[in-house]
Amino acid sequence: MKKLLIIAGLIFLTSCASIGMPDRVQPVTGFELSRYLGTWYEIARLDHSFERGLDNVTADYSMRDGGGVRVINRGYEIKDKEWDSAEGKAFFVTEPDHGYLKVSFFGPFYGSYVVFDLDRDDYQYSMVSGPNTKYLWILARKPQLDKTTMQSLIKKAQAAGFDTSKLIYVRHDRQQ
Known about the structure:
Layout: H1 3-15, H2 33-36, E1 38-46, E2 54-63, E3 69-77, E4 82-92, E5 100-106, E6 109-118, E7 125-129, E8 136-140, H3 147-159, E9 167-169
Antiparallel strand pairs: 1-2, 1-8, 1-9, 2-3, 3-4, 4-5, 5-6, 6-7, 7-8
């Protein structure tokens, strides 16, 4: 029924064996959750069945009652011409000043959410990995990133072992 929920769950079911990260990825330190909260636009991603056919993808982060982070992912399903969303929860894996969280969209199953690059001055862009180099997201506070910043992030992703030739660039041309 809800493609994002089903597919977000699948990514984490397949990656739940460990809440790890790629060998050449390290979470940012000095991470400030309060500055990270809010809406992020998905600028680019590596392809996965759980997001295939979606554009206008955003992630909204807020504090949960009782602790942790509330995650709401939204996207527009092009084929069905409808909005889809999934709600999850996230918790820090180590210290709260490390950009290393575990996220769940399905009960007890968690997957890695590793912020490994971040605009430390203004929190205007971030780069996120899952447990291996098959999972990469470039996020920004606005629907587009300037060319220079984007090229820099792609270069860093390549150095970390991601196949950036397979990046999908997400359109943001609809309002929910």
